[in-house]
Design a protein that fits this description.
transmembrane helix; 10 strands; PPM-type-like_dom_sf; hydrolase; alpha+beta; 424 residues
Length: 424
């Protein structure tokens, strides 16, 4: 394949050769008046087609100078100009034929050169077009890569921002949780101070034991003792639910007992009074659609020497003696709310023997899930309490603790309270 530079040089040589040949013909055919003067159009056309405007103008100037020189030679009758004379018409026609052939050859040659140049030009255009398309495709791919990279960077930045936001939220949640836990721990301490301690219980009972385990930091279970002259008041309650809401209700009820100036004549009257106070303080009404039935399962005991009088609002109470365990009856309604509120609280009286043990408890211990998948149940709990007879309070607590440690699931279902005592 001929290089573009060599091809261009070849074309220049062809044009120069044509100009030289045409000039020679013009000199021998009469100078500027020679018919071959028009042959100069062919190299001029070729120059403008192949070499560009600058080179073509140079060739045009050259041809113009040659024609001008021939004209000057004609005007001065220069001896350089030759006029060919013919003896017959045949040579003249031969010359005309040769001129025609020459012109035709020049036109055909110019057209072929033009077609060749056009084909080359189209090939170059095609190659350039393909290069442009290739460059565009490469640019498009680079653009897509940049977009993908940018999107990936944006995703990384977004993920980092989200991670930082999540870390801040986790830190905030952790801080709030710690604050809540601190508040609950403080509330638990306050609640513990409201419950009677060991020295307080020693003033009322010869033997006693309290198994007290809140499900959460605070509990809805509570127990209370107080002295009103010759009568001692003993209370055990289990407020609806557990945790904060139940603990608040337990504080309301304990505050009521703390503020009692004297005891009503019967324990049932005390439960009825408490029921009315809860209805008022908790804004409970007969229209159950707009009120809650929050309340408490409660047992109230009036204790004088060896005689006990009690009333129970769905409370749990056992009597343990040499005959075994006896389940003491209770009224099937709670204090607070309007479920079965038309049912009157019942009074019961019993006499205690010296070694009799009273067991007040909430449903947390019997309902606790065991490691084998079942629950403790009331029967098993009663059998545990049988062992309390003629033993000390520390033994009662040890029995309850050992069974819990050996059999309870770690997860606790409810608040647990078991309050045992005897008055010897």
């Amino acid at each position: 394949m001929i290089s573009p530079i060599r091809e261009e040089v070849r074309r220049h040589l062809q044009v120069v050769f044509l100009v030289s040949v045409i000039t020679t013909f013009c000199i021998f055919q009469g100078g500027a008046t020679a018919p071959t003067i028009f042959f100069f159009l062919s190299p001029l056309l070729s120059a403008y087609l192949f070499f560009g405007l600058k080179s073509a103008n140079i060739y045009a100037t050259l041809c113009f100078m040659i024609i001008t020189g021939l004209l000057i030679l004609n005007l001065t009758d220069s001896s350089l100009i030759k006029y060919m004379e013919f003896d017959s018409e045949i040579p003249e026609k031969l010359i005309q034929f040769m001129v025609f052939i020459g012109v035709s050859f020049e036109i055909i040659w110019t057209i072929n050169r033009y077609e060749e140049a056009q084909t080359t030009f189209l090939k170059e255009i095609k190659i350039q077009h393909e290069e442009i398309i290739s460059q565009e495709e490469e640019l498009r791919q680079q653009q897509e890569e940049l977009i993908t990279t940018k999107e990936h960077e944006n995703q990384l930045v977004k993920a980092e921002v989200n991670q930082q936001k999540l870390e801040k939220e986790k830190l905030l949640a952790k801080t709030e949780l710690l604050e809540i836990q601190d508040a609950l721990k403080y509330a638990s301490k306050i609640q513990q101070t409201m419950l009677p301690d060991k020295s307080r219980l020693d003033d009322f009972f010869d033997e006693h034991a309290v198994f007290y385990r809140p499900k959460d930091l605070v509990s809805g279970d509570f127990y209370f003792v107080n002295d009103y002259g010759k009568t001692s008041l003993v209370v055990l309650g289990d407020c609806t639910g557990h945790g904060i809401s139940a603990s608040l209700l337990s504080i309301v009820i304990m505050s009521y007992f703390e503020g009692l100036p004297f005891l009503p004549e019967l324990p049932s009257e005390l439960l009825s009074d408490l029921h009315e106070i809860l209805l008022h303080r908790l804004n409970q009404s007969f229209d159950t659609r707009y009120s809650q039935n929050d309340g408490a399962e409660l047992t109230v005991i009036y204790m004088t020497d060896k005689h006990i009088q009690y009333s129970s609002a769905k409370g749990k109470l056992l009597k343990v003696n040499e005959k075994g365990v006896k389940i003491l009856p209770s009224t099937n309604r709670s204090v607070g709310g309007y479920l079965r509120s038309n049912r009157a609280f019942e009074n019961h009286s019993i006499t205690l023997s010296p070694d009799d043990v009273m067991v007040m408890y909430t449903d947390g211990y019997p309902d606790q899930q065991l490691k084998d998948g079942g629950k403790v149940g009331k029967v098993a709990f009663g059998k545990l309490c049988e062992d309390f007879y003629r033993k000390y309070g520390k033994d009662w607590l040890k029995t309850l603790n050992n069974f819990a440690e050996d059999n309870f699931l770690e997860k606790q279902r409810d608040d647990i309270t078991v309050f045992c005592f005897n008055k010897n």
